[in-house]
Design a protein that fits this description.
Layout: H1 2-16, E1 33-37, E2 40-45, E3 51-57, E4 60-67, E5 70-71, E6 76-77, E7 82-88, E8 91-98, E9 101-106, E10 114-120, E11 127-133, E12 136-141, E13 144-148, E14 154-158, E15 168-169, E16 176-180, E17 184-189, E18 194-200, E19 213-215, E20 220-224, E21 228-233, E22 238-243, E23 252-253, E24 259-263, E25 267-272, E26 278-283, E27 292-302, E28 305-313, E29 315-319, E30 325-330, E31 344-347, E32 351-353, E33 357-363, E34 370-375, E35 378-383, E36 390-395, H2 401-404, E37 410-415, E38 418-433, E39 439-449
Parallel strand pairs: 32-39
Antiparallel strand pairs: 1-2, 2-3, 3-4, 5-6, 7-8, 8-9, 9-10, 11-12, 12-13, 13-14, 15-16, 16-17, 17-18, 19-20, 20-21, 21-22, 23-24, 24-25, 25-26, 27-28, 28-29, 29-30, 31-33, 33-36, 34-35, 34-38, 37-38, 38-39
Length: 450
């Protein structure tokens, strides 16, 4: 029976993907968040570079927040890049990131945002994501994970990194942080402050946004790779699988009941949690207009049951627990060049002697745009290719004089009558797109001996 239902799903998917493409390009919704507040479904995204928040009213998603952060220094509007909802003392807040700043808005009246606080770091850490790990609001960047309290002070940090920050998540756990790579899930125990298990998964590409769900009650991990939905225990033992159509596996989500849902681009699938039995499926390609592609997924529940929120490329889509359409909001037209992946930077080394050659690669910028690469006080120009990727050789700078005066950064060595002093210092390499204004950085440890 399971194979028959799967075959029917594949047939439906083939028919569903024959829809003609839209004539205009839309801003893609690929991630966001959802929450239940006073029994109302609230969802939002920052994929348009604005903070957009919607509420479900009958069969409509009504937008009640659409703002950008104002830069009073230059008299311009900047961009938001991610958001996260959180209930605190009965009130609803939305956190959003913009560059080096974390914003907090009160949206409890479900009609307009009220700015509560802005926290800006002074060390040029560009935030890529904001999320919630257990009860903690966190930011994720190229430098790892920072944990904030309600006053937006940093109270902890974890050295967990991924070229695709979306792939670092708690999966709903208070104890674990999960880091998904091309072929593994790294399970990081927050109490032990180390990776306690690596679990094998199977993705065809190292790129792509992925997330998983962790059931704190049965201590099981649910993930979907490019071949099947999988259920693992914390020791990495595979307990159950469900083969899907071989498309990219994106997200798995649940409202903490007996069901899980996953997205694989072509649509959304509902499974029984205990044995991964197929219960329902929905192709999302044409359900809310053309160009639908199911990626990000959030599941919340109110008194009428599960509500499945799908970030469906051309729309934000809300389905009921039978995966029937309840409402959707279409994305606006996008006149910007197409961005084919999330921003990332990679170095061929984590540490380099002064004046040595280092290789920097990156992507997620506009196709063929000029890039400015800054290493300390030196700026060089790079060029993105048609896919928004680039390669650039750089020369490692010298450490500052201050580093030589810092005892913890200096080591001394002597041989006969000669001696040498070595200092180490971390420096940021920053890449800014000339047209897109996309800004991303990565750290390098520089070593100077004199």
């Amino acid at each position: 029976m399971k194979k028959v239902l799967l075959a029917l799903l594949i047939i439906i998917v083939v028919v569903g993907t024959t829809t003609l493409p839209a004539k205009t390009k839309v801003r893609a919704y690929y991630s966001g968040d959802a929450i239940i507040y006073n029994d109302v479904v609230v969802t939002g995204s920052a994929n348009s570079e604005s903070l957009e928040v919607f509420k479900l009213e009958g069969q409509k998603l009504v937008k009640f927040v659409d703002i950008k952060p104002y830069n009073s220094r230059f008299g311009t509007y900047d961009s938001f890049f991610d958001l996260k909802f959180n209930q605190e003392d009965g009130r609803l807040y939305v956190y959003a990131i913009s560059g080096y700043s974390l914003y907090k808005y009160d949206i409890s009246d479900l009609s307009s945002p009220s700015l509560v606080k802005i926290s800006t770091n002074s060390y040029w850490e560009w935030y890529s994501r904001v999320d919630k790990f257990g009860n903690d609001i966190v930011t994720i960047s190229a430098r790892g994970v920072k944990v904030f309290n309600r006053n937006m002070d940093i109270v902890d940090s974890y050295d967990i990194k991924n070229d695709i920050p979306y792939n670092i998540s708690s999966g709903g756990s208070s104890q674990y942080i999960f880091n998904i790579t091309k072929d593994q899930i790294n399970v990081f125990d927050r109490s032990a402050r180390k990776v306690t298990k690596n679990i094998n998964v199977d993705y065809r590409s190292a790129s792509g946004n992925r997330s998983l769900y962790f059931d704190s009650y049965d201590q099981m991990i649910y993930v979907v790779d490019d071949y099947s939905a999988k259920k693992f225990d914390l020791n990495g033992a595979l307990k159950s699988t469900f083969d899907h159509s071989g498309n990219p596996g994106y997200d798995v989500a649940s409202s903490n009941n007996e069901y899980i849902y996953f997205s694989n681009g072509l649509g959304v699938v509902k499974l029984e949690k205990s044995n991964t039995k197929l219960l329902a499926s929905q192709v999302t390609g044409g359900i809310a207009g053309t160009e639908g592609w199911a990626m990000g997924l959030k599941v919340v529940a109110n008194f009428t049951g599960d509500k499945v929120v799908v970030f469906n490329n051309s729309s934000i889509l809300v389905l009921n627990d039978k995966l029937n359409k309840l409402a959707y909001a279409r994305a606006g037209e996008d006149t910007r060049p197409e961005v084919k992946e999330n921003l990332f930077l990679h170095l061929n080394t984590v540490a380099a002697p002064t004046n040595s050659v280092i290789n920097l690669t990156g992507g997620g910028y506009y196709p063929n745009e000029k890039l400015t690469v800054t290493v300390k006080d030196t700026k060089v120009t790079a060029q993105a290719d048609e896919n928004g990727r680039f390669k650039q050789t750089l020369v490692a700078p010298a450490v500052s004089n201050q580093a030589f005066n810092t005892a913890s950064a200096v080591t001394m060595a002597s041989a006969g009558t000669s001696s040498a002093v070595t200092a180490r210092e971390r420096t940021d390499i920053k890449v800014v797109g000339e047209q897109s204004k996309f800004n991303y950085s990565i750290s390098l440890e520089v070593v100077t001996t004199k």
